[in-house]
Design a protein that fits this description.
Number of strands: 9
Shape: flat
Largest sheet: 6 strands, mixed
Order of helices and strands: HEEHEEEEHHHHEEEH
Structural class: alpha+beta
Number of helices: 7
Helix content: 40-55%
Low-confidence stretches: 14-38
CATH class of the largest domain: Alpha Beta
Strand content: 25-35%
CATH superfamily of the largest domain: Fervidobacterium nodosum Rt17-B1 like
Length: 232
C-alpha cells in the first residue's frame, strides 16, 4: 500500500512539473513573437492550421479600430479562401509534401496614416512558391481608407509623378535595364502599376511585386518617393 501511494504521489508531482514547463515553454514562444513585433497600435493573432492537404500559418494584426480590423480580416479571409479553392483541385505530391500558405505583415506609420503591407507565399508544389502582396492604408483623421484611386482624385497628375520618379530610380539597376520594355510597362502611369503602396516616415513606398517589372528570379522591388515630390 505504501509503495503504491508513494508511486502515485511521485507520478502526480511529475505531471504537475511537466505541465508547468510545457505551459511555460508555449507561453514564452507566444511572448517572443509578440515582443518582436509588438506595437501600441495593435496586437497579434496567430493561425496555425494543418489539414490533410495543407499547412497554413498566418500572423494577423488586431488593432483598436473596428473598421480597420474588418478590412484586415476580410483581406486575410480572401487570401485564405483563394488558397483553399485552388488546392481543392490539386492532388498532394507523391512525396507527401503538403501545400503551404504563409502570411505575414509589416506596419508603417506617418502623420495621420497607418499602413499595413501584407505579404503571403503560397506553395502549390511548383518550381517555386507564388509570392504576392496587398497593402492597406488607413486615415485616422477621417476613419477612411486610402488607395491609388483616391490619390488620383486629389491630384490628377500624381500617376505621372510616381511613374517618372520610379522609373528614374529603377533604371539605375543594370539587371532591370536588361529588359527595359518590361520596366517601362511596369512603371507606366497606370493605377494598376502603383496600387500597392504605404505611407512611411521617409515617404510613400511603392511596391513592385514579382513579374511586374522583372523576372521572378530578381524578386520584388520598392521605391521610396519623398512626399515633397508628390505633394502629399
Amino acid at each position: 500500500m505504501n509503495k503504491n501511494y508513494i508511486l502515485a504521489l511521485f507520478l502526480g508531482l511529475f505531471l504537475i512539473v511537466f505541465t508547468y514547463f510545457v505551459a511555460t515553454e508555449n507561453y514564452m514562444q507566444v511572448a517572443k513573437i509578440k515582443d518582436v513585433v509588438s506595437n501600441k497600435n495593435y496586437d497579434i493573432n496567430e493561425i496555425n492550421e494543418e489539414q490533410e492537404k495543407y499547412i497554413l500559418k498566418a500572423y494577423i494584426p488586431n488593432t483598436k479600430i473596428d473598421k480597420l480590423n474588418e478590412k484586415i480580416q476580410n483581406t486575410y479571409s480572401n487570401i485564405i479562401d483563394q488558397f483553399k479553392k485552388k488546392i481543392d483541385k490539386l492532388n498532394v505530391k507523391e512525396d507527401g509534401r503538403k501545400f503551404e500558405l504563409n502570411i505575414n505583415f509589416t506596419t508603417y506609420e506617418y502623420d495621420k496614416y497607418l499602413s499595413f503591407l501584407i505579404t503571403y507565399t503560397s506553395d502549390f508544389g511548383g518550381a517555386h512558391p507564388d509570392k504576392d502582396i496587398v497593402t492597406i492604408n488607413y486615415n485616422a483623421d477621417n476613419n477612411t481608407f486610402v488607395d491609388i484611386d483616391l490619390l488620383t482624385q486629389k491630384d490628377k497628375d500624381i500617376l505621372n509623378k510616381i511613374s517618372t520618379y520610379s522609373y528614374e530610380v529603377l533604371k539605375k539597376n543594370e539587371q532591370l535595364m536588361e529588359n527595359e520594355d518590361q520596366l517601362k510597362q511596369g512603371t507606366a502611369p497606370l493605377s494598376k502599376n502603383f496600387e500597392n503602396f504605404v505611407f512611411s516616415k521617409d515617404g510613400i513606398v511603392i511596391f513592385f511585386k514579382n513579374y511586374s517589372i522583372a523576372s521572378y528570379c530578381l524578386g520584388d522591388f520598392e521605391v521610396v518617393i519623398p512626399y515633397s515630390k508628390i505633394n502629399i
